[in-house]
Amino acid sequence: MSITNEPVPSSAGSAGEPKLTLYNGSTGTGRRVTVRDLALAKQRGERWPMLTAYDAMTAGVFDEAGIPVLLVGDSAGDNHLGYSNTVPVTVEELITLSGAVVRGTRRALIVSDLPFGSYQSSPRQALETGTRFMKEAGVGAVKLEGGRRVVHQVEALVQAGIPVMAHIGLTPQSVNVLGGYRVQGRGEEEAERLLADAKALEAAGAFAVVLELVPAELAEQVTELLHVPTVGIGAGAGCDAQVQVWTDMAGMTPGNAPKHAKKYADLRAVLTGAAREFAADVVAGAFPAPENSFH
Ligand code: KIV
């Protein structure tokens, strides 16, 4: 793990504590990243990356690459499970995927989304669902969508010992109310609402706040206002951290990736090429070769 034993600056924790550099490109060895490490990174002004992951093998790759936080997002719905959006994803499905991601990693903090319908009705429902994710999947934190309307859920979870990442701006579970995937927080009134939501979530105990599809200037304002880290997706470069859906980042998503995503590889083309080469070898009798056979 990317922990060095440099003393922590006095502003970032008690003297003599090992300093965690959240990202330095490798896994190293040691303990998992904690929410406290993220708080210290904010104090140091250190930016960090976060990716989604839905299976053990891919999560293991990102963990080895040193990504400090992995999100088992309900974006698994459209990026892994074949649904058209996040709404149909169930608690059971996400617990299964989350368990796989936990087992495939050693260092990253694993955060799981609480699926649509599994926390909105009451703090008690949120606590029951969050508890299942902690006990059955072994995740280190949960994420839920919404502003002031979910602060009692956030309080109940945090008081029970379950770290909560909040998520405001575009909240995909509410796509049917929002009328599509559009930028949120435009105009004075909406911006004020978003700032008030962010403050309320921090006061309720959230350890980080995801800002999705929010104007960059507003995201910067939220980032300056909060003591906890902001995690942007389509929210400009002023956030403390950036999250991307891994299939967008690596070029697995069919068709055009969203404007806020950057394609760092063309995995879809690489896999298509490999599958075609394998198929051609089988048809031609070139696979298996003698070295792939047993005698
Ligand atoms: O489900 C998800 O992947 C998310 C991220 C886009 C933040 O919520």
UniProtKB/TrEMBL annotation:
GO terms under biological process: pantothenate biosynthetic process
Residues that bind Mg(2+): D74, D113, E145
Principal localisation: cytoplasm
Alphabetic keyword roster: Cytoplasm, Magnesium, Metal-binding, Pantothenate biosynthesis, Transferase
Involved pathway(s): Cofactor biosynthesis; (R)-pantothenate biosynthesis; (R)-pantoate from 3-methyl-2-oxobutanoate: step 1/2
Record-listed 3-methyl-2-oxobutanoate binding positions: D74, S75, D113, K143
Presence of keyword Metal-binding: yes
CDD domains assigned: KPHMT-like
Gene Ontology MF terms: 3-methyl-2-oxobutanoate hydroxymethyltransferase activity; magnesium ion binding
Enzyme Commission numbers on file: 2.1.2.11
Active site: E212
Localization per record: Cytoplasm
Chain intervals with Polar residues compositional bias: 1-13
InterPro entries assigned: Pantoate_hydroxy_MeTrfase, Pyrv/PenolPyrv_kinase-like_dom, Pyrv_kinase-like_dom_sf
Entry-linked SUPFAM superfamilies: Phosphoenolpyruvate/pyruvate domain
Cofactor: Mg(2+)
Catalytic reactions on record: (6R)-5,10-methylene-5,6,7,8-tetrahydrofolate + 3-methyl-2-oxobutanoate + H2O = 2-dehydropantoate + (6S)-5,6,7,8-tetrahydrofolate
The keyword NADP is assigned to this record: no
Enzymatic class: transferase
Cofactor notes: Binds 1 Mg(2+) ion per subunit.
GO cellular component: cytoplasm
Self-association state and partner proteins as the record states: Homodecamer; pentamer of dimers.
The family this protein is said to belong to: Belongs to the PanB family.
Task performed by this protein: Catalyzes the reversible reaction in which hydroxymethyl group from 5,10-methylenetetrahydrofolate is transferred onto alpha-ketoisovalerate to form ketopantoate.
Name of this chain's protein: 3-methyl-2-oxobutanoate hydroxymethyltransferase
Organism name: Actinospica durhamensis
